[in-house]
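R.M. (postdoc): so does anyone remember the format we settled on? I'll just put the structure tokens first.
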């Protein structure tokens, strides 16, 4: 089973599972059902209009609908991937998502490239992936079709969200006897929800070996110290714990 190793700015390596050819074919099959339903609905509406339309404009729309099938298919994939951040209905149901080849969210340009090339991947039977698309997904190391190779994307399985316990449920930053952080304006604004979630998960981890934990905390503390232009720290875990409590207090104050 192929995996993607993603290196975060904090120096952490995350492992993500790359979707196989079978799961992608199933997701594409579900999308094909949705596309067929949309086409049948649009055709029914246009034919109904054609019966009462004396201008002939409905007939033109019918011709555009069926003559522009490749364009409509590309638009279906482009719009869903943009709005749902890398997912179509089929991918959503199977827990798959399109990301950049480095593991980070794909850009709009990448979604555009892979969507434009989707009709080529599906050009030959069997639909919804043609021989070209299925062959490339099955044979390439990261299970990428032509659109993925050109756009620099791949499809991964979504990580299951696991509830992370609060590492300091009874503590408050404002009540700490010793505080090294300065509550200066703009400090909390330089961090976001991703930083808060990352620190919470890091401080709640218990499966690491002591030496591995120490190195991880030191690297992470150095990263945030340099990023926030903070003074040197003596204890990396205490520094990260105070930063987490500071962020949690700031989030709670904004929610009031």
């Amino acid at each position: 089973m192929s995996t993607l190793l993603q290196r975060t700015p904090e120096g952490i390596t995350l492992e993500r599972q790359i979707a196989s050819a079978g799961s992608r074919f199933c997701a594409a099959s579900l999308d094909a059902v949705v596309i067929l339903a949309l086409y049948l609905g649009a055709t029914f509406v246009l034919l109904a209009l054609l019966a009462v339309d004396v201008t002939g404009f409905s007939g033109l729309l019918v011709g555009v609908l069926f003559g522009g099938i490749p364009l409509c298919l590309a638009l279906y994939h482009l719009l869903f991937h943009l709005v749902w951040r890398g997912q179509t209905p089929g991918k959503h149901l199977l827990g798959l998502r399109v990301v950049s080849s480095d593991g980070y969210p794909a850009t709009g340009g990448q979604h555009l490239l892979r969507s434009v090339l989707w009709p080529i991947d599906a050009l030959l039977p069997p639909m919804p992936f043609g021989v070209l698309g299925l062959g490339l997904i099955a044979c390439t190391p990261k299970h990428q079709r032509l659109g993925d190779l050109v756009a620099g994307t791949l499809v991964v399985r979504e990580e299951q969200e696991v509830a992370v316990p609060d590492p300091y449920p009874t503590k408050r930053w404002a009540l700490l006897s010793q505080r090294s952080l300065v509550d200066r304006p703009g400090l909390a604004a330089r961090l976001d929800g991703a930083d808060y979630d990352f620190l919470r998960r890091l401080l709640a981890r218990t499966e690491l070996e002591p030496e591995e934990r120490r190195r991880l905390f030191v690297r992470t503390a150095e990263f945030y110290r340099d990023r926030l232009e903070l003074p040197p720290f003596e204890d990396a875990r205490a520094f990260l714990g105070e930063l987490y409590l500071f962020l949690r207090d700031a989030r709670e104050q904004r929610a009031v």
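R.M.: ...and that's the designed sequence above, right after the tokens. Also worth knowing: The chain is about 55% helix and 10% strand. Residues 173-250 form one domain.
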